[in-house]
Design a protein that fits this description.
Oligomer: single chain
Shape: globular
Order of helices and strands: HEHEHEEEHEEHEEHEEEE
Number of helices: 6
Bound molecules: ribulose-5-phosphate
Strand order of the largest sheet: 2-1-3-6-12-13
Strand content: 25-35%
Mean pLDDT: 97
CATH class of the largest domain: Alpha Beta
Low-confidence stretches: none
Largest sheet: 6 strands, mixed
Structural class: alpha/beta
Length: 225
């Protein structure tokens, strides 16, 4: 019997809980991502909420879900270190370089991931690709720079599309960039971030995931590089 995508997401969320559990202490604070897979993880984490201190969230939506379970949410500025950051992805290659930002939370996700000692990515098998870029690359942009950034992206060979009606938690807008075949993720990540007006882009290659827990029809696979 085949397992549907939500069941795969739930399975990797439970696997992530098992992955971090042995390292969790009463004063631990855990970095939490955004999206449907991260939501499954938040719900799983709630089952051990008395065994750690609290969480740092990468979005207002995740903060609300954590609080609804009675899990304290901390401002990242008040936290010295995070052992783990747990989050989903829109795509991962075999080097665990990612595209993220389908839920428009990429900037805060990248910040929390940067602080964490270990980034555990949780995803169903549809997210694993050989080359990043089939999923349109989200770029968070300061609103007044939208057209300028779009023109610069066209020069790089991308096809930017304004994600209408979406405002990020930081008050910015999103351009989704189509038709990029991202063969040098680190270079493109840096190049896009160098465009004036870009807050950040959804390539996570300069700081890739450390572990990918991949939900497959044959069970959860643990991938490291
Ligand atoms: O980057 C993200 C949000 O900005 C998510 O991790 C990504 O969109 C995957 O979402 P889902 O777990 O719902 O498939």
């Amino acid at each position: 019997m085949s397992v549907n995508q939500d069941q795969l997401k739930q399975a990797v969320a439970l696997a992530a809980l098992e992955h971090i559990k042995p390292h969790i202490e009463q004063d631990s604070i855990i970095g939490i991502g955004t999206g449907s897979t991260a939501n499954f993880f938040i719900d799983a984490l709630a089952t051990i909420k008395n065994q750690f201190d609290g969480a740092v969230a990468s979005s207002e939506a995740s903060a609300e879900r954590l609080k609804s379970h009675g899990i304290p949410v901390y401002d990242l500025n008040t936290v010295n270190s995070l052992e783990f950051y747990i989050d989903g992805a829109d795509e991962s290659n075999h080097q665990l370089q990612l595209i993220k930002g389908g839920g428009a939370a990429l900037t805060r996700e990248k910040i929390v991931a940067a602080v964490a000692k270990s980034f555990v990515c949780i995803a169903d098998e549809s997210k694993l690709v050989d080359v990043l870029g089939t999923f349109p690359l989200p770029v968070e942009v300061i609103p007044m720079a939208r057209s300028h950034v779009a023109r610069e992206i066209v020069k790089l060979g991308g096809d930017p599309q304004y994600r209408e009606g979406v405002v990020t938690d930081n008050g910015n807008v999103i351009l989704d960039v189509w038709n990029l075949s991202i063969t040098s993720p680190r270079d493109l990540e840096a190049q896009l971030n160098n465009i004036v007006g870009v807050v950040t882009n959804g390539i996570f290659a300069l700081r890739p995931a450390d572990v990918l827990l991949l939900g497959t029809q044959d069970g959860v696979k643990t991938i490291t590089v």
